[in-house]
């Protein structure tokens, strides 16, 4: 009877799934609604804020917020409120979650040397959200049964079932001890979408190449955690170089506007 019940529930989930296209035209199967994804994102972000140390460095926090505000200002959905937290950690990492949540680790500031380089990473992470990669990953996990029972798919008032696995699917796997990374096609897609976002926000897309060169050097042969599931450094840089002609007009147009330059204020 249990097997029959799970089969029926699986059929219900599949009948309600959405066949979507990513920003680059790649097919996606999405099982979860926007409201469900926002709930997962909100709960995951609260967990991160409780488990990670939040930075008290106002200058660095203002700097990160400045970059985030410019990126958010060019997003298609201006009704979504975004909140940003700078976490005190040596991790060279950042993330963005459905529902408007961005996390940046102070360790990233040691590698992303200026506003343009940091905007590269933040734009990339926000692009994962815009492209619904989290929904795609959670759906894939549900369908392939990576440690989950199909019966746990329902999200009720008590919260999100299998919280750690959903966090992993949202790109927080290393933080919860479960590896469920974005795929390389998703990472490459986030690179290109993120490049467009940073250019529209007036950040120099040419600096994206410098950033990933710096990232490739960081942490020795393995590189930082942020790169662990990404395309090879050379492949990524080649793709970014090929996209420069496409995004530079966006950058040129954005620079005609009055933009707030983002810098870390010097303590007097």
From TrEMBL:
Cofactor note: Binds 1 zinc ion per subunit.
Cofactor: Zn(2+)
Signal sequence interval, chain numbering: 1-20
CDD domains attached to this UniProt entry: M48C_Oma1_like
UniProt-recorded Gene Ontology molecular function terms: peptidase activity
Domain Peptidase M48: 59-242
Keyword entries, A-Z: Hydrolase, Metal-binding, Metalloprotease, Protease, Signal, Zinc
Pfam short name (any one): Peptidase_M48
GO BP annotation list: proteolysis
Record carries keyword Metal-binding: yes
Transmembrane segments: none
PANTHER family assigned: M48 FAMILY METALLOPEPTIDASE, METALLOENDOPEPTIDASE OMA1
Family membership: Belongs to the peptidase M48 family.
Protein name: Zn-dependent protease
């Amino acid at each position: 009877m249990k097997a029959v019940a799970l089969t029926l529930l699986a059929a219900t989930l599949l009948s309600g799934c959405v066949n979507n296209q990513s920003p680059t035209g790649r097919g996606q199967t999405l099982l979860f609604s926007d409201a469900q994804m926002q709930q997962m994102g909100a709960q995951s972000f609260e967990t991160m804020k409780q488990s990670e140390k939040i930075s008290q460095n106002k200058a660095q926090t203002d700097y990160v917020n400045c970059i985030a505000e410019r990126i958010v200002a060019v997003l298609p959905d201006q009704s979504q409120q975004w909140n940003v937290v700078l976490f005190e950690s040596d991790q060279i990492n950042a993330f963005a979650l459905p529902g408007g949540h961005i996390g940046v680790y102070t360790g990233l500031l040691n590698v992303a040397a200026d506003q343009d380089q940091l905007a590269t990473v933040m734009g990339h992470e926000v692009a994962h959200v815009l492209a619904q990669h989290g929904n795609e990953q959670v759906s894939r996990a549900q369908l392939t049964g990576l440690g989950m029972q199909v019966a746990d798919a329902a999200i009720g008032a008590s919260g999100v079932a299998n919280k750690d696995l959903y966090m992993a699917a949202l790109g927080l796997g290393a933080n919860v001890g479960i590896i469920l990374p974005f795929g390389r096609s998703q990472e490459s897609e986030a690179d290109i979408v993120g490049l467009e976002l940073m250019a529209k926000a007036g950040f120099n897309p040419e600096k994206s190449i410098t950033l990933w060169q710096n990232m490739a050097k960081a942490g020795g042969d393995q590189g930082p955690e942020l790169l662990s599931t990404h395309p090879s450094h050379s492949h990524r840089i080649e793709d970014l170089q090929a996209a420069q002609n496409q995004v530079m007009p966006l950058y040129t147009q954005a620079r005609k506007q009055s933009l707030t330059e983002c810098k870390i204020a010097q303590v007097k």
